């Protein structure tokens, strides 16, 4: 078990900014990852007076990105109002990208390598990278290796087929199981006996909580409008349990399945960024830090042979992090659990209550226990806000830091599941 | 001065037809001076798909505010309507765009409804001919947010006593350090035409450009200016004035050098100077200055 370093410096989340999230092929259809990320960063720069300033480092990423976007974060910095002397690097950990980027920035600050940094992420499913047909790509690469034009033509012409015009479209599918994330979660939902009613109820609260946050103006220092959009497009403030109950299952068995288009996150577009730094750095600039970024943990499960739930890795990450910090699952004022699917949130909570799972799988003496559900995703979650993959981490960190600042003191848990059977979790305190 | 408010943006295709007819002996009844009327379009909403296409061709990042040069692009059909009016003193085709100044009082949000109003100034003498300036005012409600001035030259019958105007504050060509090389593809004119509506034949194909005395198709001056502003987009204040003088046309395809230098921090001296010139020969294509307001 890793131990926390005593010499580490306190890292503070100073604030965040995001653009409203939009449903795929909606208002951001023509915006690129770089456009959206730059908009989110420039909103952050404006809010915290960072124009022309060099921050220590900038980490960000996108799950779906073009090969030409290999230096996406640096290009975002160069197109933003930050000083061009701000270095940047790309991070990729599927849906954990945004939170992992924040962990990397936090670690650098904690070690004294930098005093400030920005972490974030962006994703678009509307402007997604479509690749050349794989057969065509191989032929083109073979032709490229030929020295003469004649040789290139000889390599190309006999092998070209009309069917090669069909491109490769990115799919949401686990390479090693051939199942989509929804299909994997349908298995988990059935295994943990997660009911349709429970999933719809979580979904309902997600929308209601987010709508209430907008109603109160709570999002005002967390969001800047983009392309005329001011509110998350996926939010359904007027949804009811009756409406949710009418939807047909979309994953698992089409008759008896429990997962619908509402209790699963839709494909969406958006970007977010979080400003972090030491307390001194913030104070020198007249900024009030919101919450400390205390610790983080990443876990992965064998969802292939051992058939663990693809999205249940946070169930492993959280107890390891709790032990290191001498905490119990109940020692939190807020729980921010990313709602990829309502079923995955509920299965995670159920796993922590389950004696057999906690003893056999997590190696604990007793279950972690239940959480107070009124503390879960109190300003809405991904089911309502939607989930532009790499942008979700920044949304959650910024929200939780503000919640802790408002409360005055307290502790919050962040849990994000990611493709490949991974989980990224963190603790914020104030 | 009369103000004519149009119900919709005129189609630039039919205006080019009119412009082409304006070159034939059929055209008559031209006025002696620029007619003093204002054309106006109200309640113009930006189409985000078109804006995105524009941003891709000019390399602007698509932000929540418009590229500062974009409202001027939206007003292009009005410019053409002014230039092709029967009583306009010169045929539209054959006018040379020599200078362009944009004064932005504040950034324009992508979802703001714009009023565009266009008028031309009276003819003034120029060393190489006669000139006039097309003035585009961009307003949101009653607030004037931007003014664009495009100066056109009609060659011939110049007044040698008129000193050739030098753009304010511009350094001599060649003084600025080159920071980038841009490769401009042969179809750039067509690509920019499709996002700006400016289908002037001198930009479309070598053949159509030859008909007007150019050896090859030439890049739109407003593309070149847009590309410069895109490169400086995060290095300028919100309220600013950007002036460019168009020098020699860029023959497509081309490799051009972009040069830029930051000026001092003195209040009246700050800003950026920039230029576009031929990579090999250094032939100046564009000289520009950007100053905070």
- Would you report the number of β strands of chain A? 10
Q: Structural class from helices and strands of chain A?
A: alpha/beta
Largest interface (C-beta under 8 Å): A-B, 20 and 15 residues
At the fourth CATH level, what is the homologous superfamily of the domain at 181-217 and 294-429 in chain A? Thiolase/Chalcone synthase
* Overall pLDDT level of chain B: 88
Low-pLDDT parts of chain A are none
- Principal-axes shape call of chain A: globular
How can the largest sheet of chain B be summarized?
A: 12 strands, mixed
CATH architecture label name of the largest domain in chain B: Roll
* Helical content band of chain B: 10-25%
Q: Would you tell me which CATH topology of the domain at 181-217 and 294-429 in chain A applies?
A: Peroxisomal Thiolase, Chain A, domain 1
Largest sheet of chain A: 10 strands, mixed
CATH class descriptor name of the largest domain in chain B: Alpha Beta
Rg of chain A is: 22 Å
| CATH C-level category of the domain at 181-217 and 294-429 in chain A | Alpha Beta
CATH architecture term of the domain at 181-217 and 294-429 in chain A: 3-Layer(aba) Sandwich
N- to C-terminal distance of chain A? 25 Å
Offer a concise description of the structure.
With 430 residues, chain A is an alpha/beta fold. In chain A, 35% of the residues lie in helices and 15% in strands. Chain A is built from 14 helices and 10 strands.
Q: What does this protein look like?
A:
The complex is a heterodimer of chains A (430) and B (293). Chain A is globular. The mean pLDDT of chain A is 95. In chain A, a hairpin with a 3-residue loop joins β9 and β10. In chain A, strands 1, 2, 3, 4, 5, 6, 7, 8, 9 and 10 form a ten-stranded mixed sheet that branches. Helices cover 35% and strands 15% of the residues of chain A. Chain A has helices spanning 33-47, 72-79, 97-110, 134-145, 149-156, 181-191, 196-215, 241-246, 279-284, 313-325, 342-353, 355-361, 382-385, 392-407; strands at 12-18, 22-23, 57-61, 88-90, 116-123, 268-277, 291-300, 334-337, 411-418, 422-429. Chain A starts with 11 loop residues before the first strand and ends with a strand. Chain A is built from 14 helices and ten strands. Chain A has a domain at 181-217 and 294-429: Thiolase/Chalcone synthase (Peroxisomal Thiolase, Chain A, domain 1), CATH 3.40.47. The longest helix of chain A has 20 residues, at 196-215. Chain A is of the alpha/beta class and 430 residues long. Chain B has helices at 12-21, 48-58, 70-74, 76-83, 188-196, 201-204, 206-210, 221-231, and strands at 2-6, 37-44, 96-104, 114-120, 124-126, 129-140, 143-155, 178-184, 240-246, 254-262, 272-278, 284-292. In chain B, β6 (129-140) and β7 (143-155) form a beta hairpin. Chain B has 293 residues and is an alpha+beta fold. In chain B, α1 packs parallel to α4 (76-83) and α2 packs antiparallel against α5 (188-196). Chain B has two domains: 1-165, Thiol Ester Dehydrase, Chain A, CATH 3.10.129; 171-293, Hotdog Thioesterase (Thiol Ester Dehydrase, Chain A). Chain B has eight helices and twelve strands. Chain B is globular. In chain B, strands 1, 2, 3, 4, 5, 6, 7, 8, 9, 10, 11 and 12 form a twelve-stranded mixed sheet that branches. Chains A and B meet through α1 of A and α2 of B.
């Amino acid at each position: 078990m890793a131990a926390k370093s005593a010499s580490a410096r306190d890292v503070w989340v100073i604030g965040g900014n995001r653009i409203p999230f939009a449903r795929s092929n909606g208002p951001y259809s023509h915006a690129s990852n770089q456009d959206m990320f730059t908009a989110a960063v420039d909103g952050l720069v404006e809010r915290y007076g960072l124009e022309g300033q060099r921050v220590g480092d900038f980490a960000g990423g996108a799950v779906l990105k073009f090969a030409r976007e290999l230096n996406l974060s640096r290009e975002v910095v160069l197109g933003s109002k930050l000083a061009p002397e701000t270095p940047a690097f790309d991070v990729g950990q599927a849906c954990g990208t945004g939170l992992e980027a924040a962990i990397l920035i936090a670690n650098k600050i904690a070690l004294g390598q930098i005093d400030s940094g920005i972490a974030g992420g962006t994703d678009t499913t509307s402007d997604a990278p479509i690749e050349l047909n794989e057969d065509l790509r191989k032929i083109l690469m073979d032709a490229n290796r030929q020295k003469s034009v004649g040789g290139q033509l000889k390599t190309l012409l006999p092998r070209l087929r009309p069917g090669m015009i069909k491109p490769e479209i990115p799919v949401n599918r686990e390479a090693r199981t051939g199942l989509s994330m929804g299909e994997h979660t349908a298995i988990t939902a059935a295994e943990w006996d997660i009911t349709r009613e429970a999933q719809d109820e979580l979904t309902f609260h997600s929308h209601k909580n987010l709508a209430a946050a907008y109603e109160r103006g709570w999002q005002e220092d967390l969001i800047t409008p983009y392309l005329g959009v001011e509110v998350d497009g996926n939010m359904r403030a007027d949804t009811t349990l009756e409406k949710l109950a009418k939807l047909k299952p979309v994953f698992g068995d089409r008759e008896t399945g429990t997962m619908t288009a509402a209790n699963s996150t839709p494909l969406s577009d958006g970007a977010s960024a979080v400003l972090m730094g030491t307390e001194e750095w913030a104070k020198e600039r007249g900024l009030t830090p919101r919450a400390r970024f205390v610790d983080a943990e990443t876990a992965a499960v064998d969802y292939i042979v051992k058939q663990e739930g693809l999205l249940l890795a946070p169930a492993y990450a959280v107890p390891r992090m709790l032990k290191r910090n001498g905490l119990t699952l109940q020692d939190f004022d807020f729980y921010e659990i990313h709602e990829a699917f309502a079923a995955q949130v509920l299965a995670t909570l159920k796993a922590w209550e389950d004696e057999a799972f906690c003893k056999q799988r997590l190696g604990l003496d007793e279950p972690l226990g239940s959480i107070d559900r009124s503390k879960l995703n109190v300003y809405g979650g991904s089911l309502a806000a939607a989930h532009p993959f790499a942008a979700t981490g920044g949304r959650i960190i910024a929200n939780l830091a503000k919640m802790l600042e408002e409360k005055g003191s307290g502790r919050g848990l962040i849990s994000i599941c990611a493709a490949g059977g991974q989980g990224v979790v963190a603790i914020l305190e104030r | 001065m009369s103000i004519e408010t149009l119900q919709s943006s005129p189609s630039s295709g039919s205006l080019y037809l009119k412009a082409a007819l304006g070159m034939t002996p059929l055209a008559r009844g031209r006025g002696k001076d620029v007619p003093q009327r204002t054309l106006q379009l109200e309640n113009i909403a930006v189409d985000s798909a078109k804006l995105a296409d524009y941003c891709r061709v000019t390399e602007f990042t698509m932000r929540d505010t418009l590229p500062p040069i974009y409202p001027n692009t939206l007003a292009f059909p009005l410019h053409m309507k002014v230039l092709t009016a029967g009583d306009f003193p010169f045929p539209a085709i054959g006018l040379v765009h020599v200078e362009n100044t944009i004064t932005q009082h504040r950034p324009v949000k992508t979802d703001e409804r714009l009023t565009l109003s266009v008028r031309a100034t009276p003819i003034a003498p120029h060393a190489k001919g006669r000139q006039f300036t097309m003035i585009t005012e961009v307003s949101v409600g009653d607030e004037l947010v931007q003014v664009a001035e495009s100066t056109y030259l009609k060659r011939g019958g110049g007044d040698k006593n008129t000193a050739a105007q030098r753009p304010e504050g511009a350094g001599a060509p060649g003084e600025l350090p080159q920071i980038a090389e841009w490769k401009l593809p042969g179809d750039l004119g067509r690509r920019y035409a499709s996002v700006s509506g400016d289908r002037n034949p001198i930009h479309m194909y070598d053949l159509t450009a030859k008909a007007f005395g150019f050896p090859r198709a030439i890049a739109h001056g407003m593309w070149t200016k847009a590309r410069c502003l895109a490169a400086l987009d995060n290095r300028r204040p919100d309220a600013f004035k950007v002036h460019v003088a168009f020098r020699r046309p860029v023959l497509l395809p081309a490799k051009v050098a972009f040069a830029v230098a930051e000026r001092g921090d003195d209040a009246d001296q700050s800003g950026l100077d920039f230029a576009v010139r031929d990579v090999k020969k250094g032939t100046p294509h564009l000289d520009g200055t950007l100053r905070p307001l």
